## 1
Amino acid sequence: MEERKKILVAGASGALGFEIVKFMSEKGYELRVLTRSDEGAKKLAPYCNDIWQADASKEPAKIENISAGIDTVVSALGNSVSLFTPNKESFYEIDYQSNKNLLQDAKKNNIKRFVYISIKGADSNKDYTVANAHKLFEQELRASSIPHTIIRPVGFFSGIHDLAIMAKRNVIPVVGDGSAKTNSIHHKDLAKVVIRYVDSGPELIEVGGPKIHTRLEMAEMIKEAIGGNIIKIPEIVADAGLAMPKFFEDFHDKLDYFKYITTRDMIGESYGTTTFKEYLSNLDKNQLP
Ligand SMILES: NC(=O)c1ccc[n+]([C@@H]2O[C@H](COP(=O)([O-])OP(=O)(O)OC[C@H]3O[C@@H](n4cnc5c(N)ncnc54)[C@H](OP(=O)(O)O)[C@@H]3O)[C@@H](O)[C@H]2O)c1
C-alpha cells in the first residue's frame, strides 16, 4: 500500500491556508499546521491534531524541527494585505524572514517539496515592499535546490473585501480610469490549485480566476451588491497621497501596492469556477465591519 504523505501547512489559519487545511483534511492527508495566534489554533483544532503555534519570524527556536517527518511544506504564511488589518510586523519580517526560517528547517529535515504562495507582481522591477518580500523569498527557494512550485496568485476575492467594506461606508474607489483588467479568484478555488501541485508541478505558475473584468466592472458589481458610490481617483492624486509623509508605514506600503495592481492588467492562468458576481451575491453585508 502507498504510504500516505505528511504535509505541513504554514499560515494555516489564514484566508487561503484554512481552505487548504479543510480540503486536505477532507481528502485524508496527514497534516501538521503552523499558526501564530490562539484564535488560529482554536479554528484549526477540528481539522488537525498536530498544531504548532509560534511566531515564525520572532521565535525561530519554536519552529525547530517543524519539518521533521514532513514530505511537503505548503506555505501560505504572509502578512495580511488588507488595508483594514494593521500588521504588527513588516512584510520583510513576515513574508521573507518567517518563510526563510521555515525553509532552513525544511532543508535540515530533507523535505521533498515546498509549495510557496507568493503574489502576482512579485517580479515587478519597482521596489514595492509587499512584492519585494515575496520576491526575496522566491530567490531563497530557487537557490535551495528543494523541488518546488511557486504560485503567484492575483487578488483573492477575500482580499477584495476591502472594497466591499468601503462600499458599505458609501465609497467604492477606482484608481485611474478603471480600465485595467484582472481575473481575481476565490480563495477556495485557489486552495484546490495548491492541492493539485502538492506532489509535483511547474516551478512557477501565475494563477487567476475564471473571469476577466475591468476594475470599473468590478466596482459596478460591488455597487449593485452592496451599494455605495464609485469614486474615480486620478492616478496623479493617488501618487500625491502616497508622496505624503509615511505616518503608517504598513498602510502606505499596502496602498502603494494596491495602486500598482489596480492600474495595470493582472491576469493569471484561469482556474476555478466561482465568479466574482457569485461571491458577492453570497456575501452577508451584515458581517462586514
Ligand atoms: N489576499 C490576497 O488577495 C492575496 C493575493 C495574492 C497573494 N497573497 C498572498 O497569499 C498569502 C496568504 O494570504 P491570505 O490572504 O490567506 O493571508 P492571511 O489571511 O492574512 O493569513 C496569513 C497567515 O499567516 C500566518 N502568519 C502571519 N505571520 C506569521 C508569523 N510571524 N508566524 C506564524 N504565522 C504567521 C497567520 O497566522 P495567524 O492567523 O495566527 O495570525 C495566518 O495564518 C500571503 O502571503 C499573501 O501575501 C494574498
## 2
Amino acid sequence: MTMMNTQNSTDRIYNFSAGPSTLPESVLEQAREDILNIQGTGIGVLEHSHRGAAITEVFTETLDLCRELSGVGDDHEILFLSGGGSHHAAMLAMNFLPEGRTGDYLLTGNWARVAKEYADSYGSTHVAFDGKDTVYNRIPGDEDVQLSENPAYVHYCSNNTIYGTSFAAPPRTDAPLFVDMSSEMFSRTWDYSGHAVSYACAQKNLGPAAGSCVIVRKDLLERTNHGLPKIFSYAANAEKESRLNTPPVFTIYMMGLVFRWIKEQGGVSRSLKVRNREKAGIIYDAIDGSGRILDGPRRP
Ligand SMILES: Cc1ncc(COP(=O)(O)O)c(C=O)c1O
C-alpha cells in the first residue's frame, strides 16, 4: 500500500508495506551529495576505506549520536554490525546462552518466535509466554509470564511487526533483558539503559538494509561463550570498535544521518514518534472511512 507523503516537496509517497520504510527527504539529499564526494575529499562515501579518516569521522559521529539518543552510559557498548534482525537473534544465543542454562522467550509474534527458533540451534530455551492460540493478539501482563528458574536472559520483541501489538513497558525480571526493537528503535522513548541488549535491524526506521545497531551491556561481553568463530563474537567486534572486518559502511553512514535528523527534529519523542503517528493516522483514517470494518481497530 502506498500514499502521498505531503511532508515533502517532491512527489514521493509513503510506503506501508513490510520491509524497509521511507527515509527523511533531507537525509536522502545529503546522501546523494556524499555518494559523489564526502567531506570535500574528492571521492564518495561508498569508495573510502572503512579504516580511513573520513569513515572514522562518520563512525564517531554515528556512535556519539546513538549514545545520546539511547541515553546509555559507559557500561554499554554500541555496535554497528553486518546482518539484520535475524542474524542478531541467532548471534545473541550463540554468544550468551551457555550450556546448562536456559534462554527465556516471550512469544508475542512472528519475530519473537523466530528468535527462539534460532536460539534452539544453540542451546536450551524456555517459552515464558505463548500468544499463538489467540493469534498473537495481546501483550502479556506480568502475571501471564512464567519464567524459568534462573534464565541466562529473557528475550522479547517490543513491537510485533505483522500483529501490530507493542509493549507499553518492558517485562519485569532480574535476568538480563534482551529486546528486539527492529521495527521501532528510536521511534519512541525507551529504557535502553535498563536492558542488557537492545538491537534493531537498520531498514525499518534507521537506514537501508544490511546492518544492525546492537547496544549491549559490557559485563555481558565478559561472559561470552567460548569457542565462537571470532567474527560472530560481540566481544571481539566490540574490541575492534565494529571494524573487525569490513562493516556495512553505507548503512552505518545512513544511520548517522538519520540520528542527526532525529536530533535536529528535537529528539526521539518529537521526530520519528510524531512522523510514525502521522503515518499510522493515514492508515487508521482509511480503515475508519472505509465503512467496511464494523468493529474497527483501536488506535495506538
Ligand atoms: C521486529 C522484527 N525483528 C526482526 C526482523 C527480521 O529482520 P531481518 O529481515 O533484518 O532479518 C523483522 C523484520 O521484519 C522485524 O520486524
